[in-house]
Specification:
The chain is α/β, with parallel strands linked by helices and about 500 residues long. The chain contains 15 helices and 14 strands. The chain starts with a helix and ends with a helix. The relative contact order is 0.14.
């Protein structure tokens, strides 16, 4: 029998392999042996051990994959690890320990990923299994069943490898598991080739403007004038003619008007920002989409975060307010309770979420917008495509975060969103990474960190639904539940004999 130390080492190795598959490391094949080791850890184990071992795997996976959160809130980081680890631990508990384990694991992990993307407080889809496959050969299947299908395939391949490792001990179940994994990959490959990916209806010339500056800064009025000036300076690098110019999230961060009437020269004020932006739209003869962040004009306890579409004549064609806000970063759940523990480390005001559709109707086309981490939630870009978006925009602020873990994962999520919807996606950040991604999920251009840069390209305007945008997550959730039910049927039959 393996010692407790050997078991723990195996669990940690499994988790580290899963972490290695996701950005910024991005060794996508590492996920498969990681899942295979997890499967071996669950063989014929009681529920308590399955829970504990899977918790350890999840911790070794998520600790490095979400390490950037430490800089924002160490307690929040640990709570996230424990909560998401518990989701995976419970998934292992509902899977049979013996016969039926492997097919059940596919369904259970798929459901666990969906749950942690959704709850609590709207979910936190960070360091996910699909991110690790954004640059791998499996990625196109997201057009068929979204990112949940990618989760299921990763687990299926992993348990197939585990079945092959049975060697001489392999029985009928092992052979069936390996054959099923191979069949699932082949079938999904065929479906991905047949799935609709939309069609081209036009093209526009675009420019993504990255003002540059240091990482690890916060979105506050302090330094807002410098950030805005950097954006204007970079805007001078845009080559004309151009149809659309995208600025990052919250680079227009005006201070409140002083009660004394005397303005500080080192502050940015709203009317000055509006005048400058209107002038830039006219100068470039293009639609300019800047990101705003400031205190709500009528609710002093709330902030707003939105993007505007400014037409070449200086008029505002449309506004999109961020809908999916960041818990503990942009709003504080259970504020009265949490403030008693960590009041000084929390945002003073909650961000007021928007409610409208994520599409800006402009003279150059219909622009689907997902601000910042909204791109991690596939339903945001999926809904934008359903509402008629012809190209997707992701203005974000990677300057707020330590390291480049989150920024790398955001690019991966943007690649998956482009693939799933059959749309080009333009990601703009003040200090990186900004990127141009085509409808096949390929990163055509990407900036470095802290650079002042402009990315320009001719991009397609596309319409039409993929199967994933048409049907959403429901087919995969149904399949996951069916796999769990099928896995438990043999166990129930044995118990009744």
């Amino acid at each position: 029998m393996a010692s407790r130390l050997q078991i723990s080492a195996t669990a940690v190795l499994a988790g580290l392999l899963l972490a290695a598959s996701i950005p910024p490391w991005g060794w996508w094949p590492a996920a498969f042996p990681g899942i295979a080791l997890l499967d071996r850890l669950l063989v014929d184990q009681p529920a308590k051990r399955r829970f504990g071992r899977t918790m350890l795997v999840a911790a070794a996976w998520l600790l490095p994959g979400t390490a950037w959160i430490w800089d924002l809130t160490p307690p929040g980081w640990l709570v996230l690890i424990l909560l998401h680890g518990a989701f995976f631990g419970l998934a292992a508990v509902i899977v049979p320990a013996g016969r039926g384990r492997r097919i059940g694991l596919v369904g259970a992990v798929t459901l666990a990923e969906f749950v942690r993307w959704s709850v609590p407080f709207g979910g936190a889809p960070l360091a996910t299994l699909p991110m690790g496959q954004a640059g791998g050969p499996l990625a196109p299947v997201v057009r068929v069943g979204g990112t949940l299908l990618l989760v299921a395939l990763v687990v299926a391949i992993g348990v197939g490898l585990s079945a092959l490792a049975d060697g001489r001990r392999a029985g009928t179940d092992s052979v069936a598991a390996a054959a099923s994994a191979l069949g699932a990959v082949a079938l999904c490959g065929v479906l991905a080739a047949l799935a609709p990916s939309g069609h081209v209806v036009g093209e526009i010339d675009v420019a993504l403007v990255q003002g540059g500056g240091p990482q690890r800064t916060r979105a506050t009025p302090t330094g807002a004038a410098i950030v805005f000036a950097n954006q204007l300076e970079a805007n001078d690098l845009v080559d004309t003619p151009v149809d659309l110019v995208l600025w990052p999230e919250n680079v227009v961060n005006p201070a409140s008007e002083p009660t004394t009437g005397e303005r500080r020269p080192d502050r940015l004020y709203a009317d000055d920002a509006v005048a400058a932006l209107e002038a830039e739209a006219r100068r470039l003869d293009a639609v300019l989409v800047p990101g705003w962040f400031h205190r709500h004009p009528t609710i002093p306890t709330a902030n707003v975060n939105y993007s505007t579409a400014i037409e070449p004549d200086g008029s505002v064609a449309a506004v999109y307010d961020k809908v999916r806000t960041v818990p503990f970063g942009e709003f504080v759940p259970l504020r009265g309770l949490v403030e008693a523990v960590a009041g000084d480390d929390l945002p003073a005001r909650d961000l007021l979420p928007g409610t409208g559709p994520a599409v800006l109707h402009t003279s150059v086309g219909r622009l689907g917008v997902s601000i910042s981490w909204e791109v991690f939630f596939e339903h945001r870009t999926r809904d934008a495509a359903r509402d008629g978006a012809q190209v997707l925009l992701n203005p974000t602020n990677g300057a707020s975060y330590w390291l480049t873990i989150l920024q790398s994962q955001q690019v991966a999520s943007s690649r998956l969103a482009a693939l799933e919807t059959g749309r080009w996606l333009l990601q703009a950040a003040p200090t990186g990474f900004s990127a141009i991604i085509d409808a096949q999920g390929r990163v055509l251009e990407r900036t470095g960190v802290s650079d002042q840069a402009v990315l320009q390209a001719t991009v397609e305007l596309r319409e039409g639904d993929t199967w994933a945008t048409r049907f959403g997550p429901w087919p995969m959730l149904t399949l996951a539940l069916a796999l769990l039910a099928a896995a438990r049927t043999p166990a129930r039959r044995r118990n009744h004999r």
